[in-house]
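Hi R.,

Here's the chain you asked about this morning:
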Amino acid sequence: MSEHIHKRHNKSLLLYHLVCPIKYRRSVLSDEVEKSLIEVFKNIENRFEINFVEIGADDNHVHFLIQSIPMMSVKQIAQTVKSITAKELFRLHPEVKQKLWGGNFWTAGYYVNTVGQYANEDVILKYIQNQGEIQSNYKMLHKNQLRIVFE
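And here is the predicted structure, written out as tokens:
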């Protein structure tokens, strides 16, 4: 189970499910390539504040359960993971680069979703809605009452 990350001014538990398809949906993840991927992930963990909680490789894409810090955006996390793994795998396994012409290991896009350890969207929504029942001075704000005007 993931633990909170304690920093000087915050405490966080941010988990992301990241899915990265391999370019052209090619099946290039041999046992040797997977072993190299694991070593690259360990190096990423040591250099960046990115923790790979779980990694699952399918035939042509990889699923990551990643924990990171609030100072890193999801885009930064995805870019870091994708760019470093691609460079290292091409360096370590030239045969993979031959199968993936064009110089890219991953597709340009990715899928990402937040993961809640303690609750899902419905639980948090109900928790916020029920705050006013306990404290009489708690103001209930609803998205229909809020208006943001951009000029």
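One quick note: DSSP finds five helices and six strands in the chain.

Cheers,
M.
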